[in-house]
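ok so for the tutorial part 2 we go from a plain amino acid sequence to predicted structure tokens. step 1 is just haveing the sequence, like this:
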Amino acid sequence: MRQTILLFSLIFLQSCQSQETTKISLYFDMKGYIANQINLLNISKPKVSKTVTVGDKIETKVISGIDWAKELEFFVESDLNKPAFVGSYDIVENDSLKSYQLKSSGKNLVKYLIIKQKLDGKEEISAQISERNYLYESEKNLQAVFKDKKLKSYQIEGFQKVILGEKKPFKIAGEIL
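step 2 — the prediction. this is what the tokens look like for a chain of 177 residues:
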């Protein structure tokens, strides 16, 4: 009996491991790209001029020691390589542009992801994450600028609104110094 339980346990663990390693790479690998940036930023520990706007309040500080995984989590969230997203986006690609636009029948949170390659070596990434239901509404517009494959600036702008509440706009902008 013990051997049977042990055998089933090993088979179960093996099946769990193989499912975790399954990765879809149909679209731009935003999760991997941002993970690489997080690693670079954690090593270099740059100072950042960060401006946070909530409603009418604006605060700007130069800071270091940022938790980059937390700071860039919305960019990771905009990754399209998820099994549920397969076939949900219209794709336009050429030498300087990769554009993924949610099809009109799609219900995914990520509405679009656009990657532009500039002639001066800059790369601009923008995305929109939007959620609406009968209790809650939110929208986040993301923008990031890279030079020589390194993050130079980022911005997250949007709003949150709870039923019967006011729309609360916010904006977070950071520039790597």
